[in-house]
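User: what does the whole thing look like in 3D?
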Amino acid sequence: MKFFAYLRSLASALFHRSHVEAEMDEELSAHIQIRADDLERCGLPRPEAERRARIEFGGVERFKEEVRDTRWETGLENFFRDFQYALRNLCKDRRFSLIAILALALGIGACTIVFSVVYSALFDALPYKYFSRSVDVKLHNLESGRDSKDRTYFSTEEVRAFREQNHIFEDVIVFQGFRPAYDNGHFVRNFPFGMLVTANTFDYLGVPPLLGRTISQEDGSPNAPPVFVMNYRFWQREFDGDPKILNTSFTLNGIPTTLVGIMPVQFNAFGSNFWQPFRQDQIRGALMGRLKPGVSVQVAAADLDAIAHRLQKPNPGGIFPEDKFSILPETLLDSLIGNFKKTLYALLAAVLLLLLIACSNVANLFLARATARQREIAVRATLGATRGRLIRQLLVESFAVALAAAATGCVLAYFGLKVVVAMIPAGTLPEETVIRMNAPVLLLSLGMTMLTTILCGLAPALHALQGELQPRLASSGKGTGGSFRHGKLRAALVVSEVALSIVLLTGAGLLMRSFFVLTRVDLGFDPKNVVYFQLNLSPSYFFKWGDAASTKNSLEKKNALTRQLLARMQAVPGVTSVSELNNPPPLASEASDTIIPGKPHDQRWETTIDECSEGYFQTLGLPLLRGRFLSEDDMSAARHVAVVNETFARRYFPNEDAIGHKVKFGNLDLRFVETPHDIYFEIVGIVGDFKTRDYGNPSWQTVPQAFMPYSVAGYSWRSFMARSTVDPNLLLKTFTRELRALDPSVEIAESGTLESALHKFYRGPQFELVTLASFAGIGLVLVLIGVFSVMAYTVALRTHEIGVRMTLGAQQTNILRIVILNGLRLVAAGILIGLFVSFGVTRLLASEITGVSATDPLTFAAVALIVVVVGLAACLFPARRATRIDPLVALRYE
Amino acid sequence: MTAQAQLLPGTLDLLILKAVSLGPLHGYGVLLRIEQISGGALLVEQGALYPALFRLVRQGLLKASWGTSDNNRRAKFYELTSAGRKRLRQEADGWNRLAAAIASALDTRPEEV
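Assistant: Here's the predicted 3D structure for the full assembly of 1007 residues, as structure tokens:
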């Protein structure tokens, strides 16, 4: 009842406001009339009676206001009225509003961009069901020493044990990469990389197919007809997106297999081109499980570890053959994003600093305005505005600015995000991740708007209301001394702004220095105009395990192809030199155990080994230091000779000549059946070092290297490179044509220029550098605005004083010095604090930078210098205005 | 002239409820009634009355309707709702208990302690 009455009165109050007001007027005037009637009855004449009644009642408007205050809808009304008032005010002071909105929009926009990336990468990265609970399982080998490797591949028994005995997974899937031979009716070639998966995989991932159906539980049963499901990109690339291929049969490894479904473009599980169910008795490979709700990764690790160790004890060398190991599950997201997370956190920190700078900037502008409006505020307070009401009014003003800034910021973010996404290095995020602005991020931005409103508006509002009102009313509009305390707060804001920007700038500066160290490093080889490509050999080049004749045959076939291809490449116009190799530099090849007769050693000696042809050294431009290069004869005769690099010679033969010594590489015996075993290579030459690195390792390394003729080892892993005098990209097409003429079943798997391969290493640091540097740049602009506005305001406040000084004989240079010194004092304080904070904070960046220390004095000095220059520039304009003050006008300036 | 007492905070609502409980009244009438029933000891500031009346209407303790006063003027009349009557009873009980307690406390003589 009461509630409805309340609602009714609320509704009528809101919708018939004028009606309510009129009723109130009528009621109060009736009151006065009745009182006047009484007084008249006592003998007063009517006009006098009415006058008395009115006096007795007091200020009608004040009581009406009090009555209004008993209703909350008045609050809403007041808010709208304040908002209108604020808008009018802001429109009047257009320069102030634009600067404030721009500053905040930069802060909010940058935040929205980074939030979008963080949200999309960490919370919305994958389209799969409950992906945040999915974990990969890794076996970490604790044994140090030769050939100890972590693995994510588990045998049939291991997989069965984990699947059957765990207490932590809701569901487990297993998958294993494979490359079937595809018979297209003309010749047999390799299908691209695909996956054998357990039949529950598609159910586990929970993504519906684009066409047809996914693999179901029945497809996993032993007698089910063989089927497979295709990835969208593979379908588009190789079959032009033709839907008619659905439900047709493909001969894979000699077995007719039906294509039953095509997955949508977003679905890209395990980076595979297609998926096929395991045969029930052959389930092995990588393991992924969905944790039961509430189970932590640590609990999962303990459970899986216990299972593995229970099985290992009775079967040494069998199931779980490692001696000492631990099982380490890792969340799917961590394993996919891993390192990029750190970058994201760094960006998040940077962007929040930026927002803080923007906020202190705008707070400063508001403070200056509030001080200039002291008289207005004092008048309002005297006329009966309560403190709360005034604070609300000032907050509404900053809210209006924040709202406009948020809208502008979101537009900036919309476009900025496209730029940032384009800059994110390929491979840092899973292919499924789509970065875009979305509802949660926009909500967050709205929250930020509220926050900035309070940050920017509250301090100035509280400040404006402090102290006595009377002196402000009495003083002239532009008070002279009264703003001492406000001056202090303003100074503090400028100092903190400068300090924050110093932190941002040193971060960006260190990344920049590190980037230059990274890119300007003398690699020791010349990557210009060199193109490389990798072959995807067809099944006809493969050999049967344990069949010596087949192995030998395979080796000869591969070597023949290599020889012919090199000859054809060499004949292409514009090509100066060509070579076969394992991995395009600077990617490090596999490190091998190194055995040198007569040189026993305790520690493992490691050498990265490369099988190459005679053109390798010329193509990379490696200098010969001693001895000779590999020759064409070494290739054709498959001689057991090797060329080593300087580091190899210096490390393993410190006091003697390495040439003529013999060396054996353990890896050739260990892993590869296609290589002849137990060979000692004679060292015939020493070449200059070049720098190598891995994808996971950010620093350049110089390691011992050895180069042997490709014809000795018959690896299936064949890459080629060519140096040319023309644009090397043009050569790739020609090379592809030559290859097709030699053998149409062989394809080029991966190709590019050495320079572009090199750039892959730079793209991660480049992304960090560019984003952080842009933020630092924006921060610097904000500082410029901040210092400028405060100095301009100070000059305006001190016009009178400056006038007096000039009348008393102060020169323009004196005035200039006073103003500039004043500004620089603030900037200097900010720089000192900022450098001090940076000194502590940049350590957090240490893992991201190479080649410079996290407290590099040069960077710190450069940053300080930049900020001094910017501060000086910001002071100069107001200072020059101060010198142009006409003393006569200034003295009359009341 | 009787000595006038300061209104304790919170008592205005109670007095208004009491005044209105004796019969529907317009705003000025409420003032007169309070003056009358307190024997002239309690004076309510005229303007303070209306915010209180509005508050009580909002709380659903009073309801207002337009009517005609004794001297034929259109005025808003207030009367008690059932919720208002209940509240008056509670407040009055509470007030009486408090008054009795204070009175007995003030009457205490040293030998009674």
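In plain terms: Chain A touches chain B through 28 residues (CB under 8 Å). Chain A has 28 helices and 23 strands.
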